[in-house]
Amino acid sequence: MMLRANIEIALNGLGANMLRSVLTTIGIVIGVASVVMIAALGRAAEAEITRTIDAMGENMVIIWPVADSERRGMVSTRGRLTERDGAALERDLYGVTAVAPQLQMPVQAGFEGDYAPTTLQGVDAAYLEIVATRIAEGRSFAEEELRAGRTVAVLGASVADELFGGENPLGKRIRLNRIPVEVIGVAEERGGALTGDQDDFILMPMATVRQRFREVEAGDPDAVDMMLVQFAPGMSVSEGAEEVRRLLSERYHVREGDIRPFTVFDTEEFSRQSATIIGAFQAVLISIASISLLVGGIGITNIMLVVVSERTREIGIRMATGAAPSDIRNQFLVEAAVLCAIGGLLGLILSAAATYLISAASGWAVAIPPLAAIGALLFSATIGIVAGYAPARRAARMNPIEALRAT
Description:
The chain crosses the membrane at residues 21-42, 280-308, 336-358, 364-390. It is a multi-pass membrane protein. The protein is α+β, with helices and mostly antiparallel strands. Helix content is 58%, strand content 18%. The strands form two sheets. The chain has a six-stranded mixed beta barrel with strand order 2-3-10-5-7-6, surrounded by four helices. The chain folds into two domains: 2-52 and 272-405, no CATH class; 60-232, no CATH class. Mean pLDDT is 83; it is low at 69-78.
């Protein structure tokens, strides 16, 4: 009952000086909103990284060739990575379940006056299996189409929407760099990720892309732009990536100290490094936001000292009518805690509005973690108790007679 009475007294006192109360809590509001938003954005970033890696496929290593210009400062030429390398990886490395080479190039897709710049990907059966491309409409490639290099395509959801809107694209002929191509399917929508729009692509058989869209490079008739290597479940992807580097280094006679003509992307290591970077980034931002909480706490201490001075006579009357020093102390501690808790609640409301706007603008699923919300309220109330202790202690130590004489 005493706690309830103290809370009522605190709310009445804060309501009587509304403007002062609001201004006092600004530091707490900003600090709590910042900390909660940082926690929400960190959680969303981790989820996006996980979603990006999942979209690449499980137990995956990705290999890109490194252009000569990056290695020697020369005029840019395509790096070296061939289907023969993929065959060697599949043959010589333990635990490799599939290798999928891929060709990539920018194209202009057109249909009846509508155009969409996108990425054309030349793929084979292994790619469709590794990436687990799901078809929303139509069908995927038949074996004969992949082998013979037919001019058929599967559109990403974004490309299909941009070219056809709500119209059924199946059986229609689009033009890719003026080459007519039949649409046989539309891939299931994946959504956005850290790597961008995952639905902005067109899939075609690799043989078709090589024959119709790419000039064969001298000396490298089976050159590829990227290669996916999938390992068996339970294997360490990081160890597998190291084995890939070792084997390719041997094939390209890379000596110690040389820059490799390829880059090996390890999804496992990427996930670990990303988590470390996000954690460090959050720690730095939370430390900065905590300064606002500290300033807010100092403001609470100052305003509570003013409140104690203004209510000296009230304190004297309460003591004269039997209130113990602990009752006086608790009253002002509760008032400080309530003031900070209100600031924390306003901070939560502000952070909820901000995360909603960020989510709507970015497409990320940004949501306030429940533990962060509860923790923010408890932490802000704790700041109030700590900040209000000195003023409350001062009030509890007042001499009742001197307090009654105050005007």
